[in-house]
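Weekend entry, working from home. Most of the wet-lab plans are on hold until the incubator is repaired, so I used the time to fold the two sequences that have been sitting in the queue since the last round of cloning. Logging both here for the record. First:
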Amino acid sequence: GAKRVVVLGTGGSSLGAQVLVQINGWGTPASGMVKASGPEMIFADNLDGQSFDLLLDEAQLAHTKFIVVSKSGGTAETMMQLSCALTALKKAGLDTAKHVSGIAGSGSNTLRDVAERAEFPLLPHADGIGGRFAVLTNVGLLPALLMGVDPISVRQGASEALSSFMEAPVAEIPSAIGAAMQIAHAGNNRNISVLMPYTDRLERLGFWYRQLWAESLGKDGQGTCPVNALGPVDQHSQVQLYLGGPDDKLYNLITAKNQHPGPKALAEACDIPELSWLQGRSIGELVAAEAIATFTALKENARPVRHIKMQDVTGHSVGYILMHFMLETIIAAGLMDIDAFDQPAVEQGKIIAKKLMSESSN
């Protein structure tokens, strides 16, 4: 099997999978120390010539598998990466069928044409589900499975969130309450929505949420600007603005109750009066206290804030929170009377970029 998997995809073709693999520690400061049940996982989600050149290092190619993901089958950045990867594999004398696979939308598209010519296999991208909503399909679950995350538990968690949405009275549905709250504050000129989890293993959730909220709701002159932060580190870069700056934001803090507490500070290591308050306490206890302190300070300064309390960071709980935010986004779009599932402004930029590339090559 491959020692290294490089996922070629951008936006929703990558971010959801990143959320899921981070459950097992990928992309955290200690990711190199985490015992992974699968290969090294790399998401080449931003197009950069220097970075991608390094990923195509010939010494690594024999042990590398590329997974290319594009619902449209024609995403410019992804097709550029795939073309360069195929060129590098051919130069190294490697069989593309053994080193490349993909996920593409049905019907005729560029990725399907390339796969047929290069003879590498494709899985179908779920029809009717756009990239930013595709985390619970093979787009998110295939990389998760390779990294030892149980896809069944992810979908069970999501299914529970959906069931509670379908069965509960409207006034008791968290996603409906959240959507109404977001829209109400937008009407009061709070046009920034901050998502701030207090755990490394939910850091990518903020990036996924940022795309989901912005691309689904930023239409017809409407929408609020999603901002992702991470606690407690961003207390040292953002919270001064949150408390002392303009009252133009809604704050969404996320904590995980049963998260690994980490090591404790023992008395002999901090036996001075100034550190007595740390003695015998764990890192997790300090993080939890800081989250509550930020929540309390925001409340005391009359800043709108909600505290989302997850039990833990597992496939089940992350599946639940992913479904929650997708439902909240869809409901918000309904309240705004816009289509949550298209992105017409993005398409305009794609057309211009393709035209510029065509003109410069002639």
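Second, folded right after the first finished:
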Amino acid sequence: MDDGTDPVRDLMPDDSRIRYLYQEHRLTVGAKRNLACREARGEFIAHWDDDDWMAAWRLRYQVTELLQTQASLCGLSRLLFDQPETNQAWEYVYPAGQKPWVAGGTLCYTKAWWQEHPFPDLNVGEDNHFIWSLPADQIIALQDNTFYVALIHPGNTSPKRTQSRRWHAYSPARLHSLMGKDTSSSTSDLQGAAGSQAPASAADGFPLVSCIMATYNHAHFLPQAIQYFLRQDYPNKELIIVDDGPSPDLVDIPQDKRIRHVKLDVWTPLGRKLNLGIEASRGQIIQKLDDDDYYHPHFLTTTITALTGWDPQPGVGT
């Protein structure tokens, strides 16, 4: 299911088991999943991320588990990650004692359950909503996690916060051993693709967040404030600076299409400036930023997580 600007039908092998569906208009991730599930002819559906590694026995293992347990869905709550560029690896471990969860890229479930509970029309968190529509006893977190390795690369859409307590260092040699001969080809192909496509793909699946910064005569604060915005690890963002200060030249605004400067000729109340910034925004979500405060690089990711209920840390293949 492809809704990109460059269709890849010509890359599809001549195999009756593979069907390529192209949509001319952009859809949310949830809508694309529903279209693909509707087209599916099988009793079981597995998610198949386009930038991750999977063992040859993955489907056999997951379908057998569903048949034996009569559960509706299974996947991994402990996920292996490989970062070829730095030769580092991690195991992400979802904490015990929380609501059942498995990673979206590892899902395998019955089509019957999807027919009763389709994915919500969302770009972010659609997998979690789908998983949590199930009773806890219908979700199986598989014990053997060696059939799936998520690759970390510049084109990932979800930031990987590998310094958090959920991430544990893993032996790269051990990881590459289980991937076998697939390691070199998959990682090198991925690095090449990520290098050429990162600017476009970095925002896929994330709602645009419009950051509104109202300022007055604070030119000495703004260079640092702009840097705080630029270093945010949330990938799909824009900054609108609404300025009613007396100076005609605010500061040297970076030549970045994500940053816009709205200059007002007269002093304007703060509320009106914020409204003007929102009117000029293109995003689905508005975030107010002050020009003289510090913002941690994870600030936007944290606020969007709280607002949407989506957890960016376990994101797989994104």
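Plan for Monday: verify the second prediction. Residues 209-308 form a domain with the Spore Coat Polysaccharide Biosynthesis Protein SpsA; Chain A fold (CATH 3.90.550.10).
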